[in-house]
Amino acid sequence: MELTQEHDLLQRLADLKVKSSVLEVQEVDREAMTKKTVQLINAQDDNITRLTCDPIKILDQAGFEADEISESPVDFDSVMQELNDRLVRAGVIPGHPLFLGFIPSGQGTYPSALGGFLPAAFNTYSVIHLESPAAVQMENRLIQWVADLFGYPAGHAGNISSGGSLATLTALAVSRDSRRLKAAHFHRCVIYCSEFTHYAVQKGLGAVGMREAVLRKTPVDTSFKMTAAALEKQIKEDKEAGLLPFLVVATVGTTLTGSVDPVDDIADVCERHQLWLHVDAAYGGFFALCDDMKQLFVGVERSDSIVVNPHKGLFISSGVGVLVVKDGGKLQQTCSLQQTPSVFEGMQFFSAEHLSPCELSFELTRSFRGAQMWLPLKVFGVGVFRAALEEKLLLARYFYRKLKETGEFELPLEPELSVVLFRATAPPGVDINNFNQQLLNDLNSDGKVFMTPAVLGDQYYLRVCILCFRTHMEHMDLCFSLIREKRGHLWGSFQSNA
Amino acid sequence: MELTQEHDLLQRLADLKVKSSVLEVQEVDREAMTKKTVQLINAQDDNITRLTCDPIKILDQAGFEADEISESPVDFDSVMQELNDRLVRAGVIPGHPLFLGFIPSGQGTYPSALGGFLPAAFNTYSVIHLESPAAVQMENRLIQWVADLFGYPAGHAGNISSGGSLATLTALAVSRDSRRLKAAHFHRCVIYCSEFTHYAVQKGLGAVGMREAVLRKTPVDTSFKMTAAALEKQIKEDKEAGLLPFLVVATVGTTLTGSVDPVDDIADVCERHQLWLHVDAAYGGFFALCDDMKQLFVGVERSDSIVVNPHKGLFISSGVGVLVVKDGGKLQQTCSLQQTPSVFEGMQFFSAEHLSPCELSFELTRSFRGAQMWLPLKVFGVGVFRAALEEKLLLARYFYRKLKETGEFELPLEPELSVVLFRATAPPGVDINNFNQQLLNDLNSDGKVFMTPAVLGDQYYLRVCILCFRTHMEHMDLCFSLIREKRGHLWGSFQSNA
């Protein structure tokens, strides 16, 4: 690229402009590309919404090696065809009404998808107020709405992360810093949770440098909830042993059992011992929209930080979690640079009036995630979400009752939220764990439904999580029939072998 | 919600199904919604691509308070109108060809935007191989492609993060863990960088629990590059003082000056002292695609980890960073759970054959970011990016020469990549820093161009970063004319005041 002659340089620049101008896709091509994309989306949704749809899960995952990245362009239709053949035709379809296997990570209502599209096209830079004041204010408004939902007073601050793990990691760092803990004491620090606390906490501790800290799993009651008394006993013992209790993680809706820890009682303990109370409401948080559920959320307003996942309870596309810290200054202290390196000082276009997201999270540039949450909330209104969440709660009770009435299943827990645990009684002489493991395999084998297990103590249960906006009564009826049918077959096969 | 009667429950479920079914937007509405969205995008791009476009930056940011979240739905067109009025009509337009102020965080080529749309609509769950094998394999293929670009051998592993900060945070954690550093020793640990190393490193250190560690800024040469000799001297002194040197961050393309640290020399030092070498190529990395630039990347293949931002050098929409760690096992060791809590064991659908992204990053659920990178690379082919990047390099040289030829500007550094620093000479008796601060204000005031400063030592420079795919020779000509014009006016005003 030694271009000594001015003429050479101008010629080369003219050539390169022509070559690189391909990146500016023309309007007519955009229309064709968009049309093709929407066709794929519609075809997929057609599949899903028909009850006689394609399997929820294709088990044969061979032959899905991704294509190479090549020097030359590939026709857009071929690229889309490849995506269609591969993305859609293998794996699990998360938007399916019988996706009951994990707490669904969003089902992608259409406006949410457009909320992924529009800012990606505008390339909205949503992390500095100066650059995109509207995006920042929209995200702040969403955080305010979440804070209001849980009764946080003014003075809070938060951020919109990629999901619960990153939000939890940040909450851990803030709680760590709020105590001005020295690294030399990390190994003496104690974090309290239960066996059912999500492993995002353990993962986050590794990230924030506290792998050596003590992660204390306090006993749960028969509903798999933390007990405040056991927690307090443990804290006292730890203090006497010279350890440094500093953080309690309470869960509003454990992913495995749907249990809600007694937050108010735990808040009493935290208050007495001056511990940071973090509430993991990633799964259960948005059930606070349902009037009848208010009692489950008593005490959440007393916590120091909350994580809630719109891509779960608001049925939106994956990649949107919200962290709110009651004392916003503490979040800023952890995330903002205490001292900007002097050479970058001229680059800090921050305003005192409007805090920017990059001062309140560990991320600098990132996508304008708020749009995926903003569009559906505006377009549908909060009332629809309230109704959909109430429906999920009632579906769980409905399904629980139906299973119970048959007398063929053991149900360890009346559902508080939208998770139902059950296991089939086993034929005489057959190990109940093996029987249910086999039952789960049979249920998942033909791809009509997707469920996961929960191993409680040494007991193996099946687990159904109802949180897809497409799941209605008829789907739970179908799920129920499948379970009874497979159970019947399995029971029969054991008897014919006996 | 006390529903004792079976009949009540069924009736309530039927009602709620009707209410919540609104979330399943029908095909005809989707078409209308998509059309409206694309109209907005096209209108914005029309604005941008005309040279007589709307200002790049609207300074009056008052009155952009975001609307409330309301109980009732808002008509889609009104929501979009609000977005249009607010997002587009305030702040800085990052896709503008005269957005020269920051290393552009992506300009959002259209296929990249579709790559934000499609997976959000499919709600592709890209972090566990079992759930979405094709998405995982596509992301792994992209990581492989990046690793190949920098000459990493087999055995590496990586992840696609939201951007450079999260990728850097993760690299710091991996380097920390690779040395099995105890928290008790964090305050004795030393990280080496230069004054020009991006503050993401300082921010990340706070996140990973190492705020107490020593962040040593070693001297730079006259091109603002780290010097291996000064680095080694400092390491020796620190070792003698009983400190624990463990990590060096070298930068391939500092954001402030576009300088490339001498990675090969630094790698020698790291090898001799057994330090982790992390290469921050967030801005400069993809220039490795240009054949003539190979010499700048010598030694990068000897590093232990690399961060590169596709949303910079690949001109794609914000929110896509790539981390690659040479010894993939180390990344997994830091990010994967060492021991899964027993109750969650049944939930771990991991395969030994295919590592899942959630085992190689701190994030669990997140969006399928790979699509924003995959689509443009496939649709345009690598060749176009190569041409576009070469164009940016030549534009920087072209612009540098033009400024230099006038004799009216001081240029402290011949551009190596696509950043150009300059300042106007000041009229006699006028402080050169004040003069240039005023010049920058004047340039940014009418929104025709957007630039930022760089304060080097106590000298104030203006800074132009060329990395938008829309920036061509005519834009640099326009930028040049604006600078000369404003400089002339400013000079005149000082003389008339004198």
Automatic annotation (TrEMBL), chains A, B:
<dbReference type="GO" id="GO:0042423">
    <property type="term" value="P:catecholamine biosynthetic process"/>
</dbReference>
<keyword id="KW-0456">Lyase</keyword>
<feature type="modified residue" description="N6-(pyridoxal phosphate)lysine">
    <location>
        <position position="312"/>
    </location>
</feature>
<dbReference type="GO" id="GO:0005737">
    <property type="term" value="C:cytoplasm"/>
</dbReference>
<dbReference type="Pfam" id="PF00282">
    <property type="entry name" value="Pyridoxal_deC"/>
</dbReference>
<dbReference type="GO" id="GO:0006520">
    <property type="term" value="P:amino acid metabolic process"/>
</dbReference>
<dbReference type="InterPro" id="IPR015422">
    <property type="entry name" value="PyrdxlP-dep_Trfase_small"/>
</dbReference>
<dbReference type="InterPro" id="IPR002129">
    <property type="entry name" value="PyrdxlP-dep_de-COase"/>
</dbReference>
<comment type="similarity">
    <text>Belongs to the group II decarboxylase family.</text>
</comment>
<keyword id="KW-0663">Pyridoxal phosphate</keyword>
<protein>
    <submittedName>
        <fullName>Tyrosine/DOPA decarboxylase 2-like</fullName>
    </submittedName>
</protein>
<dbReference type="InterPro" id="IPR015424">
    <property type="entry name" value="PyrdxlP-dep_Trfase"/>
</dbReference>
<dbReference type="InterPro" id="IPR015421">
    <property type="entry name" value="PyrdxlP-dep_Trfase_major"/>
</dbReference>
<keyword id="KW-0210">Decarboxylase</keyword>
<dbReference type="GO" id="GO:0019752">
    <property type="term" value="P:carboxylic acid metabolic process"/>
</dbReference>
<dbReference type="GO" id="GO:0016831">
    <property type="term" value="F:carboxy-lyase activity"/>
</dbReference>
<dbReference type="InterPro" id="IPR010977">
    <property type="entry name" value="Aromatic_deC"/>
</dbReference>
<dbReference type="GO" id="GO:0030170">
    <property type="term" value="F:pyridoxal phosphate binding"/>
</dbReference>
